[in-house]
Amino acid sequence: MATTAPVHPVDEVPPVRQLAAFGLQHVLAMYAGAVAVPLIVGSAMKLSAAELAYLITADLLVCGIATLIQCVGFWRFGVRLPIMQGCTFAAVSPMVLIGTTGGGLPAIYGSVIVAGLAIALLAPVFGKLLRFFPPLVTGTVILIIGVSLLPVAGNWAAGGQGAKGFGEPKNLALAGFVLLVVLGVQRFAPAFLSRIAVLIGIVVGLAVAVPFGFTDFGGVGDADWLGISTPFHFGTPTFHASAIASMLVVALVTMTETTGDLIAVGEMTDRGVEPRTLADGLRADGLSTVLGGVFNTFPYTAYAQNVGLVGMTRVRSRWVVAAAGGMLVLLGLLPKLGAVVAAIPAPVLGGAGLVMFGTVAASGLKTLAQVDFKGNDNLTVVAVSVAVGMLPVGVPTVYAQFPDWFQTVMNSGISAGCLTAIVLNLLFNHLPGKAGSPAKAAEPDEASVTA
Fold it and tell me: 144: which of 215, 305, 313, 417 fits an S-S bond (Cβ 3.0–4.6 Å)?
């Protein structure tokens, strides 16, 4: 009698109601970050309100398409893991510079298209670098990802960076209330409800926020019912050498960050990322970035905040995140729905973000627990890598006097910490030891894909 092979949790398809709830949870976790990039770039270029709204709906549409490519996959595109895609913040400064001094939005989109093609072409090369990500490096990178996101949650909890009344006690009280709801549901609710603890926390927080005047839904009435992003809405892309050069640096940074995120999700879901699947995931990033340049939006990468949600809820199905991608497509096509989600106040997201981002950091510690720290310099590798990664997070202007390309790489705590961890691991664990030092024990998993 033939037996059916067990389905890996990553490939399981939950019931429709669970897909909807889990997927919505992922959308709410990344929405604020997704719309922040077009808002920042568009505002810096002094676009009109209508043009800003167009940028946001275009971004949400391509976010959804990019997520579907990454989760569902076709041919050699997509890592086929629960990975949400969104605009990368690493590109914000270069794009603002290009847009305001180097040719406007057409020059941005020209450089984005070239960067996307470069990512797709370089994906196999990055896939072969996976051996340089042993548990010592991956655990450190995951820890840095989580810790570097915590200030984002802190800003949300205080009311949102630049918001009127930033840091008022009522904002932090609302964030703290949402955090308590999330923890209470996760601890005491039945299994299914505990897995949507973040969603419940956000819904309850929103229900409390509305009567206390934290938000209103006035913008919902003003939003259009239907909005379709057409290719090259802002004009035919132009290609400037300086703009392309800066965006290629961004491409290398986002590939490094995405590699860390993919490895983190692979460990959380017990489906280790291999060189081929890493290349497939990066190739999907490249395709999505090209689509971004065509459909009036920006470079795309894996979103670390949703990595934390996967670890916290322990829901490993990629179809859940694919459902979230479908919701983003709807939000991009139906601006009125997007306006509803946009009405969620920042402190509500902050309370949920604290536990999600902390979960990412804790997952890094879990991976580091597998590393041998006796009789070697592994502790130094972790210590210095975390320090370098946190430097631009704690002191955002620390590299302000350095060249633009250097700032693009090092102002991202994730890429700075990742590069440092790789270099220090090679220095201390691969180069010949100093005279009189104890022989370094070879890490059994050094050449393997995962810890």
Answer: 417
